[in-house]
Specification:
mainly alpha
Length: 265
């Protein structure tokens, strides 16, 4: 069991180091919230990668790096008189309490489904109280496009607009694909790109109808591609083949062989 006094001491030490670096390190002193934002995103992805690979020690290190970046953002905000670190933590704690009325209030929730339903209703009410004019308000434009596309679909569904099922989404994908091909036939690459975007937006919403997450679905597909491509490289190397010099038919043959070796699923 963790020592609460140790947790407090180490957190305060980390915050103090961040503040000291802002005063004494030339590079840290020059940074702004905007210039550090890319590191915040990078550290979040590195932490996620370590977690997904089930590397506890690496996860601890990356989560610590992420926490340091959060503290840098908070300290910069303090310097600009925007908010204090204690206000940030209080707001986060208050929000968790507010969104868990089944733990801290009189609301009953006997399943994770009921918890999520309450959570979404509370978030909806929060958006309304902030003056949201659209059901899509509050979805960050800076989110990775795939995640944003899926969240837009979720939010539109909550407002009453959505496809009936996965087949309905796939029909829309086919419609957009036809429009891509028509644009290509006209030689209009800009229109084709726009239609590809529409197709990708629709396709990003298929996994949620299958009980899957779009980001994780694409991650798994990327991992599968990497494994198969590396197997193609191994086969080619064993046969002293140069991938760059092979025609499409031979490359396809190698790809199918790699799939058979690794399993075609």
């Amino acid at each position: 069991m963790s020592d609460r006094s140790s947790e407090t001491r180490e957190f305060e030490r980390l915050a103090a180091i961040v503040r000291e670096l802002r005063q004494r390190c030339p590079w840290d002193r020059e940074q702004t919230a905007a210039s550090l934002s890319k590191y915040l995103v990078e550290e979040a992805y590195e932490a996620l990668d370590a977690i997904e690979r089930v590397q506890p020690h690496e996860s601890a290190e990356e989560l610590g790096d992420l926490l340091a970046q959060i503290l840098f953002q908070a300290v910069i905000a303090e310097e600009g008189k925007h908010f204090r670190l204690d206000e940030l933590m209080k707001a986060a704690a208050d929000k968790l309490v507010r969104r868990h009325p089944h733990v801290y209030g009189g609301v009953e929730a006997n399943s994770s489904g009921e918890v999520l339903a309450n959570w979404e209703k509370i978030k909806h009410d929060e958006r309304q109280n902030k003056g949201a004019g659209s059901a899509l308000d509050g979805i960050p434009r800076a989110q990775p496009a795939l995640m944003r596309a899926e969240k837009l679909g979720h939010r539109a569904r909550s407002a009453g607009m959505d496809w009936a099922d996965a087949r309905g989404v796939l029909a829309k994908v086919r419609e957009e694909l036809n429009e891509v091909e028509h644009a290509l036939d006209r030689g209009d690459s800009d229109a084709a790109a726009a239609e590809v975007g529409d197709m990708m937006l629709a396709l990003a919403n298929v996994p949620r109808f299958l009980g899957h997450d779009a980001e994780q679905t694409l991650r798994r597909a990327c991992d599968k591609f990497v494994a198969r491509f590396e197997e193609v490289e191994r086969i080619a190397a064993a046969r002293q083949l140069d991938l760059k010099s092979l025609d499409a038919a031979v490359l396809e043959s190698l790809w199918q062989e790699a799939k058979r070796r690794l399993g075609s699923s």
